[in-house]
Model the fold of this input.
Amino acid sequence: MEIEKIELYGVQMPLARPFRTSFGVTSSRHVILVRVIERGGEEGWGEVVAGEGPWYSYETYETALYVLDKFLIKNVLDCEDISKNNVWAVMSRVKGHNMAKAALEMAVWDLEARLASQPLSRFIGGVRSRIESGVSIGIAGSVSELLKIIGTRLDEGYLRIKLKIEPGWDVDVLSRVRREYPDVPLQVDANAAYRLRDLKTLLKLDEFDLLMLEQPFEHDDLNGHAILSRKLRTPICLDESITSLNALKTAYKLGAVEVVNLKPGRVGGYTEGLAIYRFAVDVGLGFWIGGMLETGIGRGHLVALASLPGVSYPNDISASSRYWKEDIVEPLWVQRNGYIDVPNKSGIGVEVKWGALKKYLEWQREYRKART
Ligand code: OSB
Ligand code: MG
Done:
């Protein structure tokens, strides 16, 4: 197919509540939405998940805008016959910048699924009619506040709780959480806040019957993760480290990973994401879909991936209301009894609610195919 036009929408959306991780607090998200339109008028949507600053990875929403504007959009518009099978290769001259690439790549996959009148979930081999919904809870002001938030999330129905940890907010906090909630499916995420010198603290995490410990060390410290993994019973999950299939293969060879958190934005979209999925399932690694505080657009892509048969843990995919006062899609994403329904409509299965989008819109741009 030929893409006729690509539109970018820059929105700033306040979170329902600030989200604190070891790398900082997020109160409001700058999101770039990508809309691709083909000659016949059908459209597809993607979302840049990069943060406000280079804290989770080196990308920010502004570096993504730069790379989209200067390189990636032109690559895609210049291609006479773009499809889900070649869009990743068409962008491959650009090194890195996976979140910028993913927004465009995933919009093309959405568009192709819509042209095929298929839900994206089925288009990529998903089989589930509903996906398991977990919730990620940020570092709180106090332990009693955290215990209250956990209680609320459990009452809402979430199947498992993920807590953010950092040095000083770990062992003592977890022992109080476990005293209050001894049987809740629980896991923790350090966002690279520890070093191998913290080994003694990390080994204490085995007391808490955690599903996994996510990304204790820096993204490129596969050796550190391998050393820890040999000593810790709790499975090691990697997030930031898994930027590509090659990175996963190396981590696996070293014994640095037991569970994969797949975020399509981090790996450049479906092409690499599905390759990572197939490898993880083939070698018997645990697998689930992570999130980056997406709007309802990005969440649609996450739901499609979470419907794959090899997903073996609950996902960081929560209801619209967990993230936003007002999400920008309809229908909203709703969690019931711990599950979110996989849409039957074609593509991601939700539409942009223009009235809501306009409230948060800061700028927009459009790019058209150069006609000769
Ligand atoms: O490390 O998983 C992470 C949010 C922003 C950046 C990094 C992470 C997260 C989350 C939230 O944990 C997951 C979600 O979208 O619900
Ligand atoms: Mg993480």
